[in-house]
Structures are given as structure tokens and as C-alpha cells.
Amino acid sequence: MTLLPSTTEDSRPHVRPGVNLRAVRSSAGLAPGHLLRSGDITALTPYEAEHLVAQYGLGAVVDLRSDAEVLRYGPPHALLGAGVRWIRCPLGGYPRDVIQAHRPTAAQRADYLWGILTRAEPGCWARLIRALAAAARDPILVTCHFGKDRTGIVVACLLALVGVPDEDIAADYADGAADLLAKVDRFAEKWLRKGHSRQDYLSRMRTSPETMSRLLPRLHSDPAGVRGVLVGVGADPEELGLLAGHLSAGGGDPARDHAGSVVIDTDSGPHRPIADPLPPTIP
Fold this sequence. Notes:
Blueprint lengths: L21 E2 L11 E4 L7 H11 L3 E4 L3 H7 L3 H5 L3 E4 L17 H13 L5 H12 L4 E4 L6 H12 L4 H9 L2 H6 L5 H6 L4 H7 L4 H11 L5 H8 L4 H11 L36
Parallel strand pairs: 2-5, 3-4, 3-5
Antiparallel strand pairs: 1-2
Helix pairs in contact: 4-6, 4-11, 5-13, 6-7, 7-11
């Protein structure tokens, strides 16, 4: 039995490692097994991390967590031990008031995801797209704390970028619910600190396709589609082209004609030994 699923319509293994960890479901437009997503990456064991690398050829984890989250919960030690590059691209500064309700509605969740995209701290998305474009020559893992909000909007944008149908994007978002619900008690410290109940968090962990279906029309609202939306929040058009080429199923690899056009200083960041748990983020 494999530890992690292969990219099929039903991508759930019998034993789920980590938290909300899975290969994004195979769909038209996306290269199978090239994009993975996860919640809390500190949950991986060394064996699981090594198997992840062996099964997918994972090259890098792009971590959207804030400095405070990394200091509180820790770096991805198991992945680092397996030779995976840790690329920190904190995604923050967006409003959170829209989901202050203990049990937000699908409409409120969609507004929240849209705010992560359009109202994040200036420069966040430009740095993120630059990092993804450079890292995605090899399979990549995108992660945050739960793997559903920040990771959810990032993965939705990436899937839209390579032409994955909306219904498949919504279905992939919804795929996380079962594992999050099964592991809700892992986050007890968080709901107690925020004054929520366990039932509140069970509600919050339900990643319904309705939420993503409400969001997706906004990703297509620009005449240039999601590319236009991403350029509007600071992404470089050439880097978007490189990224789309890496992720596309059967597509060319534009990076071969633009080698060196995007650079990440991995020597001072993700490759170094983690004594200080906060290596430099992408400039």
C-alpha cells in the first residue's frame, strides 16, 4: 500500500499522513503529480516525508505561514531532513473580520478567500508567484496551517491559470474536508485560544464546493481571466507564463528558453540548516 495517493479521481489513501495532505486531483490542464497541497506540515514523520519525495519527486515546499505561525508551530523538520527545499512566502495582511462569526457561511468564506487574493499585504503575491515560478520545475507542495484558506486560494489560482475546469477546482477544494474533520482535535489549542468550541471548528473545517463555486466567477472577472487578476495584485506576466508552463499537462516548458530569469537565493534560505526557525523569506 502506498503512503500517499496517486493522482486519480479518488485520491484518498487508506491511511492519510500529515494534515489535509494530498496531490491535487488530476484534471485537464494540470500535469499529474506536479502540484501537492497540505495543512500543518509539521505533522509529517521522517518516513512519510521520505516516501513523499520518493513517490512524487517533491523538490520544494512553499510555506504561506506567517513568522508567528512558524515560531509557534515550527519548521518542516521532516521535509528538510528528506532534502526538500523550504521556501517561505508569508501571505498575510488581509482582513479577517468577514469570518469572525463562529460558523461562517459559504458566502462569507468566499469573501474571505477573495480578500486573501486582493487585499493581502502589497508584494505578497508578487513574491509568491516569483517563488512558485522558480520552484515548479520540480513537483511542489503548497502549504499553510489548515491547507484550506491561503492554500485554497493559491491552488485555485494555479488551477485556473492552467485551464482546469471550475467544477474540478471546486471539487479539489472540497476534498480536504474529510481529513480536516478527522483531525480537528489537533487544533484544540487554536480554538480554545480564540474562544471557539469544537463544534465551531468542525463547522469551519468543512471545505464545501459551494464556497469555491462562489469565488471562481471573481477569478474570471478580468477580461484576461485569472492572469489579469494576478497581474492586478502584482504578479509579473512573464513569471506567470513560466509557472503555467511548469504546471501544464502536455505543455511546453517555457523556462528552458528563459533559464535564469527567475532566481531564488536558496543558499541563504531554504537549504541552510535550521538553527533559527525563520530563514529569510523570498525578497
